[in-house]
Specification:
Chain B: Belongs to the D-isomer specific 2-hydroxyacid dehydrogenase family. The complex is a heterodimer of chains A (328) and B (325). Chain A is an alpha/beta fold and 328 residues long. In chain A, 35% of the residues lie in helices and 14% in strands. In chain B, the strands form two sheets. Chain B has a seven-stranded parallel beta sheet, sandwiched between helices. Chain B has a five-stranded parallel beta sheet with strand order 2-1-3-4-5. Classes of the chains: A alpha/beta (328), B alpha/beta (325).
């Protein structure tokens, strides 16, 4: 430990965009976990020790164990996400640790990815790519219904959680001339819903009526395992489920059964339990289940913007200024 | 229900029940019910003496085939909107009415074009493969980052029915600007603030270049090395029109060398694309097996319309959708 170093210490758990990190380096002593693989829990605990700030992402659980390992000098945590289910916010508040996150800047990219998943599952993109690769294309017209999918036009869209991202998804899908946009959540949101004609319904009504069920809610204790066997039973047999919220909202075993048995039509998941999803997961054996590795916010401009925002938050927290986008 | 006077038709593929029922109720129909499409020589034999033909876009309707059918043939009905497989001039010479299926497949094809654009630009193929291959554990913040539509310039080459619908669907994604070529569309300019441009401008300024033009002698091979050179290095090229508008060898070189960013193709030359095509080895190229109109609703509607065209033409009536050439 250098006695001369008075710069605050920041542990950055992964190689975030260099432009953002270089700004951090101008004001702080920065340690970055580089390397082929993401940091193990032990590496996170070791890296956090003695730090004034942490730059993390959703795979890093902020709990008593980590906060204790870091030490009482920890002032601010910046999470590269809008989701917060990996952070014990109450505990951070208790210990006076500021937490910053990335709302708004990732809304567009995430909504776009949500729609990409809706369309990829509707049109069976995974099966199509495989058919070309495997040489089963034939003449494509052996059978006029080969690889026929679902149309967005005329369909009923059901959004679970009409927050920023859910609303952005609804606005994009509305241009496809859908028949109805339904949404559910704790309370109606007329300011968001009215301009696009979205209708507030109960969860069960949404399940029963929707051709596309899109999960865009934030994850918390009340909606853990929300999509269980009974939920899938209520959905249409041709319905498609898309989850861009958190893996924990879906009971994955129940989902596997529902897809395998034809209880629902297909699923597109950008989030799973755990992440990474093991390659042995039975979901990966299903032609009607598409899994992407949590890339919904992944556009170059968005990731750069997220990084800049977290750097702003961390620097503010270290300098005792209000955070740009505080959770607490 | 058929009688000796009912017209004789050949239906060259299995089609949805509704269309089949329509045809068999009005015609003496020879139905091809096998899994494989009819081989050319068998096709030419079967059609001898027919009055009407219900065909698909993989059937080449040329002078040879029309000769094989004989002088009774007065209607060709294709279950497609593209008709580059039909020698319409030859048909006109022989007073053969040709029906097609515009309009009803617009939505399905426009949606597929958007699906393909999103899958390509957001790198879904690579993402899916990464999950299957166990590469997720090496996550980095810029890993699999794509190019978003937000703030982008989208260039539509050929703003016809499908191109316009594609643009309308993309509009709420935050597209900054639409450029287009082909025929002037005052409605698009009004609704989407689309800007009519020449090809060079469209190529050099677009982040997304979408080919929605028909295949004609003018457009054949238009997307070649020259065109790709003019495009941005980050450009995403999407083709859901016909494989023939693209010089595929040039496209491969452009993708491999980084001359353009990525490509999504629903149409290729040939179709099917052979499994050893170099395009299939590229991470930044997504190829789909010509499924533009492949939705349950649309395929059924296309088959029914093609059946209606066939029946109307055989009666000597104007078809619901006839090619006037």
């Amino acid at each position: 430990m250098s006695a001369a170093s008075q710069l605050p210490k920041v542990f950055v758990v992964r190689s975030f965009p260099p432009e953002g990190i270089s700004r951090l380096k101008q004001h702080c002593q920065v340690t970055v976990h580089e390397g082929e693989h993401t940091a193990t829990r032990q590496e996170i605990l070791d890296g956090a020790r003695g730090m004034d700030a942490l730059f993390i992402y959703p795979q890093v659980k902020i709990d008593k164990e980590l906060l204790d390992a870091a030490g009482s000098q920890l002032k601010v945590i910046g999470t590269f996400s809008v989701g917060l289910d990996h952070i014990d916010i109450d505990l951070c508040k208790e210990r006076g640790i500021k937490v910053g996150y990335t709302p708004d800047v990732l809304t567009t990219a995430t909504a776009e990815a949500g729609v990409a998943l809706v369309m990829a599952t509707a049109r069976r993109i995974q099966e199509c790519i495989q058919a070309v690769k495997d040489g089963v294309w034939g003449t494509a017209w052996d059978n006029a219904m080969w690889l026929a999918g679902k149309e967005i036009a005329g369909s009923v869209i059901g959004i679970v959680g009409l927050g920023r991202i859910g609303l952005a998804i609804a606005k994009r899908l509305a241009a496809f001339e859908v028949s109805k946009i339904l949404y559910t959540g704790r309370n109606p949101r007329p300011e968001s819903a009215d301009p696009i004609g979205a209708e507030f319904v109960t969860f069960d009504q949404l399940l029963e009526q929707s051709d596309f069920v899109i999960v865009a809610c934030s994850a918390n204790d009340s909606n853990k395992g929300l999509f269980d066997e009974s939920a899938f039973k209520k959905m249409k047999r041709t319905a498609i489920l898309v989850n861009i919220s958190r893996g924990v909202v879906v009971d994955q075993d129940a989902l596997y059964n529902a897809l395998k048995s034809g209880e629902i039509g297909a699923a597109g998941l950008d989030v799973t339990t755990p992440e990474p999803l093991p390659t042995s997961s039975p979901l990966l054996t299903l032609p009607n289940c598409l899994v992407t590795p949590h890339i919904a916010s992944c556009t170059v401009s968005t990731r750069n913007a997220m990084c800049e925002l977290i750097v702003d938050n961390i620097l503010a927290g270290l300098e005792g200024r209000p955070l740009k986008t505080p959770v607490c | 229900m058929s009688s000796a006077s009912a017209p004789k038709v050949f239906v060259s593929r299995r089609v949805p029940e509704k269309a089949k029922a329509l045809i068999t109720s009005q015609c003496n129909a020879i139905l091809w019910e096998k899994d494989e499409p009819p081989p050319r020589d068998e096709y030419l034999k079967i059609i001898s003496g027919i009055d009407g033909l219900f065909c698909l876009l993989t059937d080449k309707i040329d002078a040879e085939l029309l000769d094989a059918a004989g002088p009774n043939l007065r209607v060709v009905s294709t279950m497609s909107v593209g008709y580059d497989h039909v020698d319409v001039k030859e048909c006109a010479k022989r007073n053969i009415a040709v029906g097609y299926t515009p309009g009803i497949l617009t939505k399905a094809t426009a949606e597929l074009t958007v699906a393909l654009l999103l899958a390509t630009t957001r790198r879904l193929k690579e993402g899916i493969r990464a999950v299957e291959n166990g590469e997720w554990g090496t996550w980095k913040p810029m890993w699999l980052c794509g190019q978003g539509l937000d703030g982008a310039t989208v260039g539509v080459v050929g703003l016809g029915r499908i191109g316009y619908t594609v643009a309308q669907c993309l509009n709420p994604f935050g597209v900054a600007r639409f450029l287009y070529t082909g025929y002037r569309r005052p409605d698009a300019e009004e609704e989407l603030k689309a800007e009519f441009a020449d090809l060079d401008k469209l190529y050099s300024e677009s982040d997304f270049v979408i080919a929605c033009c028909a295949l004609t002698p003018e457009t054949a091979g238009m997307f070649n090395a020259d065109a790709f050179k003019k495009m941005k290095k980050t450009a995403v090229f999407v083709n859901s029109s016909r494989g023939g508008v693209v010089n595929q060898d040039d496209l491969f070189v452009a993708l491999e060398s980084g001359e353009i960013g990525a490509a999504g193709l629903d149409v290729t030359i040939p179709e099917p694309l052979p499994t050893d095509s170099p395009l299939l080895g590229l991470n930044n190229c997504v190829v789909l097996p010509h499924i533009g109109s492949a939705t349950h609703d649309t395929r059924e509607a296309m088959a029914v319309l093609a059946a209606q065209n066939l029946i109307a033409g055989l009666k000597g009536d104007k078809m619901p959708s006839q090619i006037d050439d």
